[in-house]
Amino acid sequence: MPTSIIIIFIGIFIFWGHYLAGIFERRGVPDVLGLMLIGILLGPVLGIVDATKFGTMGSLFSNLVLVFILFESGTDLKLSEVTKSFKESAGITIVGFFMTWIVLSALTFFIFGLSPLSCLFIGSTLGGTSSAVVVGLVRKIAVTPKTSTLLIMESVETDVFTLAIPISILGLMLTGEIQVHMVLSQFLAALIIALMIGIGGAFLWSVTLNRFPQLKSTKFSTPAFLLILYGLTEFLNFSGPLTALSFGIAIGNLKYFEPRILDKIIPDQAIVLPAEERTFFSELVFLLRTFFFLFIGLSIQVHRLEWLLWGAVMTLALCLVRVIYVPFLVPKSTPVLDKAVISTMIPKGLGAAVVATLPFQSGVAEGEAIRAICFAMILFTTVFTVLFFFLINKGITMPIYRLIYGADTTPGSPD
User: pTM here?
Assistant: First the structure.
């Protein structure tokens, strides 16, 4: 395709993204679905664009999107809400991941007859949730800040599980050897060191801004420093997304982290992003987010119809399981609307798609089947999440959730 045509399409897609965002604001029709469907139409259906031709640029682009979206989400989070949500987010992260792992592993074993290791790989790869989808949706509905924080934290915390465990299983598939202590050490190291880099980076950037005030007048210095932190964390094989989120949280809540000794040495070191930089950053996030969901649609390649249909069935099973365990992991006083939204947040993103391709690239015998099944699940978990979210936002399915979870117990809670 000529470069001039590609540039024209880029401009059209930007306008399309703004149009869908406007519809989302006015009518509550999620823009995520429209962007993904266009990607699917241009890629797997019509074959106009081949996502595989993007090569490493596709992976680079997806990483940039996640970095900026998570950082922006972190700066908007209040530490008091993060503290309140930690217990619930840790619970729903662990239970959600392992329930998804068990259910999907069992279903793929009985439905497709794959080897146990292949089934375990699929279940662990799809055990998390997509940060980009979750962040984009929770901001469009009137859930409590605590619930919004819980869902964002869950989407980031599961990143540690969905990287360390599938890669360890892949090692067993290739070599026949696996060490349990390696999985545990990878998990703890990824969690602790990513947090240290994110929060420590916020202090370092605070000191830098106070030593070099001219940086405050630039529009992209803070995001540039964020990219350095993210790249360093990923280079060290730890969780870059968790670093991006913790850096954003620390930037937005630096006074809560600041030791008194630093306040004496470097007074008034709190970071306040300029309004112009925030506006520019928001527009950049919107642009990247638009092409991110188009890219997801382009990347979903389903080669067999039966795998696609079974993907839909397995997604419904995940929805049912999540509806069952959610009320046991959140306070009873949580509004029914919040419980309903939490129960629908099962989208799988491009990160899962990347991990799903590893067995095929490594020459595993069932690698193509693993990739196709994971892609089908990524498609339907996103579509069903968006559909159920839309029905909840419109109030259509709220009577069903009230029947399942009961009436609100807190006076003044939303119906």
Answer: 0.70
